[in-house]
């Protein structure tokens, strides 16, 4: 009697429990396969460290950029408007008109100059004096929100200055002490220009968190700065702060038009372009370099699987004679290699996140252990080591590591599936 139809297919379904069981056995070490286990261990550690290093480095670079951008743009204007043909004597009217431009947060007339600052003793250092109105200074969040001592109330009428915390520490100053400012552009006499020397009481001490600014910025009432720098009745520029700093190129023409007088302006992007471009280039290069760690670990998976396939030739031949398909053999070795890559990626992901979330504590521990300040704020500008985890970048790193691990398993798994059972058992 002839069969009326095809016989049902037999055998294990793709990625069945049978295939996972065999892959798990191949991952466990035996004395004859100690070399394979060692290579698998190094592959796991390499992928784990590579993924963790990528997450940590990218997060720190993101933190650096965000912190520097926030602090630098929070203190300095996003657009700086300067006069062309004549002194800026109508700075109040210009600032008021610019404030009406949609997208502008506020504008600030400014008089500034380099001076030599001296404390109560003999210590002295260079600093930058910025003369600003009290109303504008109170809108500068990095300064107004980080006053450590004193107050900015009655700043315009008190006749004192606000200085950075590191400058106060360097000169040994506290609230109420006098700081002596020396400017080379003083009074003109028959004997020449004499330096201008004047002492001001310290009304407030702030800490922005950017060491360069905390050690070199002095804020003074605008009217007092005009007298000190021989700029009575005029301002040097108007600094404009906008709602979205990345939108300054679009707002720049409207800001210049609102001045209603001949001016030219520069944006924060043009002033700091080389600095932030260097940060971006460094970030991209570090990503490429650290990706090589993951790639080398993936190549270790390739070599380990090739050794495993060579050592398991007899087992593969027996499985084939018992009915295992080529696809099943390929999946078994694919699961074996991919398990190393996926487990290493997960371990690296967890390690990287834990490191980033506790990076300041870890830095403090290693600084204490080595006796060396690992993150010197005088060199790196920031007082704390920043880390900002971006979900999209973490997903990219994890996907890249898993993808490389999968690709590394394809060739040795394919070779295992192509093994001829007759040739493998001929000399057994």
TrEMBL record:
<dbReference type="GO" id="GO:0042953">
    <property type="term" value="P:lipoprotein transport"/>
</dbReference>
<dbReference type="InterPro" id="IPR003838">
    <property type="entry name" value="ABC3_permease_C"/>
</dbReference>
<dbReference type="Pfam" id="PF12704">
    <property type="entry name" value="MacB_PCD"/>
</dbReference>
<keyword id="KW-0812">Transmembrane</keyword>
<keyword id="KW-1003">Cell membrane</keyword>
<dbReference type="GO" id="GO:0098797">
    <property type="term" value="C:plasma membrane protein complex"/>
</dbReference>
<keyword id="KW-1133">Transmembrane helix</keyword>
<feature type="domain" description="ABC3 transporter permease C-terminal">
    <location>
        <begin position="287"/>
        <end position="421"/>
    </location>
</feature>
<keyword id="KW-0472">Membrane</keyword>
<feature type="transmembrane region" description="Helical">
    <location>
        <begin position="394"/>
        <end position="414"/>
    </location>
</feature>
<dbReference type="InterPro" id="IPR051447">
    <property type="entry name" value="Lipoprotein-release_system"/>
</dbReference>
<feature type="domain" description="MacB-like periplasmic core">
    <location>
        <begin position="44"/>
        <end position="257"/>
    </location>
</feature>
<keyword id="KW-0449">Lipoprotein</keyword>
<feature type="transmembrane region" description="Helical">
    <location>
        <begin position="34"/>
        <end position="61"/>
    </location>
</feature>
<dbReference type="GO" id="GO:0044874">
    <property type="term" value="P:lipoprotein localization to outer membrane"/>
</dbReference>
<keyword id="KW-0813">Transport</keyword>
<feature type="transmembrane region" description="Helical">
    <location>
        <begin position="329"/>
        <end position="355"/>
    </location>
</feature>
<feature type="transmembrane region" description="Helical">
    <location>
        <begin position="285"/>
        <end position="309"/>
    </location>
</feature>
<dbReference type="Pfam" id="PF02687">
    <property type="entry name" value="FtsX"/>
</dbReference>
<protein>
    <submittedName>
        <fullName>Lipoprotein-releasing ABC transporter permease subunit</fullName>
    </submittedName>
</protein>
<dbReference type="InterPro" id="IPR025857">
    <property type="entry name" value="MacB_PCD"/>
</dbReference>
<comment type="similarity">
    <text>Belongs to the ABC-4 integral membrane protein family. LolC/E subfamily.</text>
</comment>
<dbReference type="InterPro" id="IPR011925">
    <property type="entry name" value="LolCE_TM"/>
</dbReference>
């Amino acid at each position: 009697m002839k069969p009326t139809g095809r016989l049902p297919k037999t055998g294990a379904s793709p990625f069945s429990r049978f295939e996972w069981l065999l892959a798990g056995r191949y991952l466990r070490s035996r004395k004859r396969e100690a070399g394979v286990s060692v290579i698998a261990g190094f592959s796991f550690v390499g992928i784990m460290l590579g993924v963790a290093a990528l997450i940590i480095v990218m997060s720190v670079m993101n933190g650096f950029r965000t912190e520097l951008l926030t602090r630098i743009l929070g203190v300095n204007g996003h657009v700086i408007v300067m006069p062309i043909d004549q002194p800026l004597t109508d700075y109040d009217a210009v600032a008021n008109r610019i404030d009406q431009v949609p997208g502008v947060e506020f504008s600030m007339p400014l008089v500034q100059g380099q001076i030599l600052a001296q404390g109560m003793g003999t210590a002295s250092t260079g600093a930058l004096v910025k003369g600003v109105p009290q109303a504008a200074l109170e809108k500068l969040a990095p300064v107004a929100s980080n006053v450590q001592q004193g107050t900015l109330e009655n700043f315009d009428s008190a006749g004192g200055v606000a200085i950075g915390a590191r400058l106060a520490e360097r000169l040994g100053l506290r609230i109420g002490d006098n700081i002596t400012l020396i400017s080379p552009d003083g009074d003109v006499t028959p004997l020449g220009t004499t330096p201008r020397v004047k002492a001001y009481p310290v009304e407030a001490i702030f800490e922005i968190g950017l060491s360069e600014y905390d050690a070199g910025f002095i804020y003074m009432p605008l009217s007092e700065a005009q007298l000190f720098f021989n700029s009575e009745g005029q301002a040097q520029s108007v600094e404009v702060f906008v709602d979205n700093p990345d939108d300054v190129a679009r707002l720049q023409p409207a800001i210049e038009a609102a001045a209603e007088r001949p001016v030219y302006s520069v944006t924060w992007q043009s002033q700091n372009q080389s600095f932030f471009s260097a940060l971006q280039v460094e970030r991209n290069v570090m990503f490429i370099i650290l990706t090589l760690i993951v790639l080398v670990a993936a190549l270790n998976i390739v070599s380990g699987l090739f050794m495993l396939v060579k050592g398991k030739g007899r087992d593969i031949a027996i499985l084939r004679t018992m009915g295992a398909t080529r696809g099943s053999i390929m999946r078994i070795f694919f699961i074996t290699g991919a398990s190393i890559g996926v487990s290493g990626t997960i371990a690296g992901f967890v390690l990287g996140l834990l490191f980033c979330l506790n990076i300041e504590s870890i830095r403090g521990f290693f600084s204490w252990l080595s006796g060396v300040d690992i993150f010197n704020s005088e060199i790196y500008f920031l007082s704390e080591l920043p880390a900002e985890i971006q979900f999209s970048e973490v997903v990219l790193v994890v996907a890249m590591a898993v993808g490389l691990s999968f690709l590394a398993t394809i060739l040795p798994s394919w070779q295992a599936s192509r093994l001829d059972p007759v040739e493998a058992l001929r000399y057994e």
